[in-house]
Write a structure and sequence with these properties.
Layout: H1 2-6, H2 10-18, H3 24-33, E1 40-44, E2 49-53
Length: 61
């Protein structure tokens, strides 16, 4: 169960899933528990340019 992997209660998972403001480290932990990783990209629509954002620890693969 996801709550067990994150060492939190099921109501805490529900609160996270329904929140409109989730901190990046919290989202990263949630996704890692699901077997995924978080990648952030800034998109400049007027230039068609995409720039990856690296926050906190190094997530290079």
């Amino acid at each position: 169960m996801l709550a067990g992997r994150l060492d939190v209660t099921q109501p805490a998972i529900s609160k996270l899933e329904h929140s409109e403001g989730v901190r990046v480290p919290t989202l990263r932990q949630y996704l890692e528990a699901l077997g995924a990783r978080l990648e952030l990209v800034v998109v400049f629509d007027d230039e068609g340019r995409r720039v990856p954002i690296h926050l906190g620890r190094n997530n290079a693969t």
